Amino acid sequence: ACANALRLDPQRFAATVCTVRTALDTADFTRATQLLEQARSAGAPEPQLSRLRAELAVASGHGALDVEAVQTFLRTHRNDVPLLVSLARLQLQAEDGNDADDTARRVLSLSPENPEALYVRAYVAYVDGHFGTADELLDRAHEGARTVSLRARVAALRGMLAYEDRRYGNPQALADEAIAADGRCATAHLLRALIASRDPSAQRTALEAAAQGTDTPAEAIARLAMALGSNAQGCALAERYVRMAPDGYDRRDVDDVRSGCR
């Protein structure tokens, strides 16, 4: 239906939004980029165009690469909630927990109980080891989740909690639930990789799926780079990690991989 609407009226921005989101849902980032360029050339309105660009950056796992671009646009659209949500998610990808949490809190001051902002805060709490807080925030995010993507990420992050502490559930069951909801959920594939820590082949397969999924955590890229070492693919992934999370938690180990690259 989206593609048909776009063919009938290529300058209709609502149809472009629909087709871009469809491309993002299928991790077809090249197609989404092409559609956004067509929309820009056709004079698509702001701030809607920048919102979609930010959503593409998040889905592609750009992290720090696009933080500054979103911040620049926010200088003139200071309280644009969709852009602030994308900024928080990019900061989370960049493993900049303090800024991600601050931005998520700002979203919640403008849009109380915003489920994406609650999810960002839950992820930061999980990374910081505040599992009870993360669990409570995930309950609230789950209650407000309206997209398949967010429902999958909530299940996957709860699975990460359960991997650390079984009081929060069965990590394998939660990974399966997340994958069933959204097969391209990178966080769910990262969880599968953690569960498969004693099976290097299964772990690598899960990490490769995470690297090719949507909203990929930098941790998945770092783990795969370290598993591959200083071959061509490992070196490319190490560079990807540095671009998306230049001050990330795994920077030192990733730099060890990079030291063996040409």
Structure notes:
The chain has 262 residues and is mainly α. The chain is built from 16 helices and no strands. It has helices spanning 2-8, 13-25, 29-41, 48-60, 67-74, 81-93, 97-110, 115-127, 131-144, 148-164, 171-181, 186-195, 200-211, 218-228, 232-244, 251-259. Helix 5 (67-74) runs antiparallel to helix 6 (81-93) and helix 13 (200-211) packs across helix 14. The longest helix is centred in the middle third of the chain and has 17 residues, at 148-164. It is globular. The protein starts with a helix and ends with a helix. The mean pLDDT is 93.
Key words describing this protein structure:
mainly alpha, single chain
Question: TL;DR?
Answer:
The chain is mainly alpha-helical. The protein has helices spanning 2-8, 13-25, 29-41, 48-60, 67-74, 81-93, 97-110, 115-127, 131-144, 148-164, 171-181, 186-195, 200-211, 218-228, 232-244, 251-259.
